[in-house]
UniProtKB/TrEMBL annotation:
Pfam families: DUF6104. It comes from the Bacteria. It comes from Nocardioides aestuarii. This is DUF6104 family protein.
Length: 58
């Protein structure tokens, strides 16, 4: 199992019943990259992918 899978499973088990806004997620991503700047590119790619997920042009 990949570390990502474990992290996602933990997120679901700990916070799966909560409802959050995209603004909340964006704030957490910003905080994460402030603490872990080495993940800035990966976070930017993930955020861009989410933003364009339903865009037929991409």
């Amino acid at each position: 199992m990949y570390f990502t899978d474990r992290g996602i499973e933990e997120l679901q088990s700990r916070r799966g019943d909560e409802e959050v806004t995209l603004a909340w997620v964006a704030e957490r991503l910003s905080e994460f990259t402030d603490v872990h700047p080495e993940f800035e590119t990966a976070t930017e790619r993930f955020a861009t992918w989410l933003a364009r997920l339903d865009d037929p042009e991409d």
